[in-house]
């Protein structure tokens, strides 16, 4: 079958275009005009944990790509030079944090201390980071910031103006997350009261529904271990890195001395507290558990109010 001259020409043009396209991809690369963050506006509370924007959507741009922060601007459009210059001491991890490390030395063997911009970017994927150590409210004030991001690859570079808007506030100096109840409890109310800005103690009160205190000797940590002869209690005896350094039971509360804050020692992590009673407190078995952290030093009062029907 003969192929017409017109079709031959079209085929040749198509092959030539394909070859040129491949050559361009190989030599010049492709930098998509559709580069963006999936969520271009985020609202964050700084100080409790590592904040991440997520990687930038690259839309088949030629890799490798290199991302840098070109500028950070306040809501009125002015360059936030103090934020650009603000750096914090934080950690990059080389091994898994388990929460069972016994000493700071064991912990430090798994991580490397680094000094990084408080608002940072992963140069490989554009993920913007705000470290939990960025707690200086004078250098990083509350409010909205827009971030310009520069992207480079083999085809060149482009600046994505206002690629991400970050609305910054500050986290509370503690975290609490209810996890569960069992037995005859209908709920728990947990409050954190920082009674002094200095110090290294936690006072723990557990109250019956009438407000009278529970003797801490009547509450027991729940064992998470399934290995015979091995215990893994999630209670006030076990707060990481050999904390508490001193554990004292009074008839109406616990007094715990802590080596240092944040608690747990690694910012962004939480402690599981899981306690039960065999029925001596209100006539029936119950169990409650929650996750918490305390981020700043001081004397803290933690009150756990039990809720039940009988």
Dominant shape:
elongated
Look at the helices and sheets and give the structural class: mainly beta
Query: What is the averaged pLDDT score?
Result: 91
- Biggest pleated-sheet summary: 5 strands, mixed
H/E element order:
HEEEEEHEHEEEEEEEEEEEEEE
Number of helices in the DSSP assignment: 3
Tell me about this structure.
- With 310 residues, this protein is mainly beta.
- The protein is built from three helices and 20 strands.
- It has helices at residues 5-27, 81-85, 104-108; strands at residues 36-37, 41-46, 51-52, 56-57, 66-74, 87-93, 111-117, 119-121, 128-130, 143-153, 156-170, 174-183, 185-196, 200-207, 220-221, 246-249, 254-257, 271-277, 286-294, 298-308.
- The strands form six sheets. A five-stranded mixed beta sheet has the order 13-20-14-17-16, with no helix packed on it.
- It is elongated.
- The N and C termini lie far apart (93 Å).
- The model is unreliable at 1-26 (pLDDT under 50).
Characteristics of this structure?
single chain; 4-stranded mixed beta sheet; 5-stranded mixed beta sheet; mainly beta; 310 residues
């Amino acid at each position: 079958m003969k192929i017409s001259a017109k079709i031959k020409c079209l085929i040749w043009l198509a092959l030539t275009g394909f070859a040129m396209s491949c050559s361009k991809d190989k030599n010049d690369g492709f930098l998509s005009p559709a580069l963006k963050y999936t969520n271009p506006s985020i609202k964050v509370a700084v100080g409790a944990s590592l904040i991440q924007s997520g990687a930038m959507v690259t839309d088949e741009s030629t890799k490798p790509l290199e991302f840098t922060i070109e500028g950070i601007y306040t809501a009125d459009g002015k360059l936030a030079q103090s934020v650009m210059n603000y750096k914090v001491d934080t950690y990059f991890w080389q091994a898994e944090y388990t929460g069972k490390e016994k000493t700071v030395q064991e912990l430090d063997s798994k991580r490397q201390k680094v000094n990084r911009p408080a608002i940072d970017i992963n140069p490989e994927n554009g993920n913007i980071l705000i470290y939990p150590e960025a707690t200086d409210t004078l250098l990083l004030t509350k409010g909205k910031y827009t971030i310009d991001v520069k992207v480079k690859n083999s085809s060149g570079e482009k600046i994505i103006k206002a690629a991400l808007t970050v609305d910054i506030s500050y986290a509370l100096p503690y975290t609490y997350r209810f996890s569960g109840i069992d037995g005859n409890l209908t709920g728990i109310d947990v409050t954190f009261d920082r009674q002094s800005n200095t110090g290294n103690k936690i006072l723990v009160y557990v109250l019956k529904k009438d407000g009278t205190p529970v003797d801490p000797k009547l509450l027991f940590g729940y064992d998470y271990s399934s290995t015979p002869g091995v215990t893994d209690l999630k209670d006030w005896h076990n707060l990481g890195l050999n904390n508490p350094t001193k554990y004292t039971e009074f008839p109406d509360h616990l007094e715990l001395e802590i080596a240092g804050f944040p608690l747990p020692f690694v910012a962004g992590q939480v402690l599981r507290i899981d306690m039960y009673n065999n029925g001596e407190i209100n006539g029936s078995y119950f169990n409650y558990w929650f996750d918490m952290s305390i981020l700043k030093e001081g004397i803290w009062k933690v009150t756990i109010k039990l809720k039940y029907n009988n």
